[in-house]
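Bumping with the actual sequence this time:
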Amino acid sequence: MRTLAAILVLAVASGAAASASAQTRLTDVQFVKVARCAGLAGDDRFDTVYKANEKGRSPFAIAKADEARDSAAREVKRVQKGRTPGGQERIDAELGGACAALKG
């Protein structure tokens, strides 16, 4: 009886763990968005989420994520140089809104 109870506990625990890991897996679109957020933030706030979702991702999705990160970093540089009026407000809004939701 104890063996059966132990098996049931392990089965439920492993199912819960699989369910939790499935919920934290980002879609390709969300993965690219996290990369963009990393480029906008200019620091490692989004690296944990990015790295946790990079494994098993298609080369195409990784390439798009790299493009999004690089594009966002260029956008930040343009804003810092004063070439984009109102750009900092848009960046702050994106970091506080869509990016904050992805940070986990």
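The tokens above came from a reply further down the thread. Residues 38 and 44 are 7 Å apart (CA to CA).
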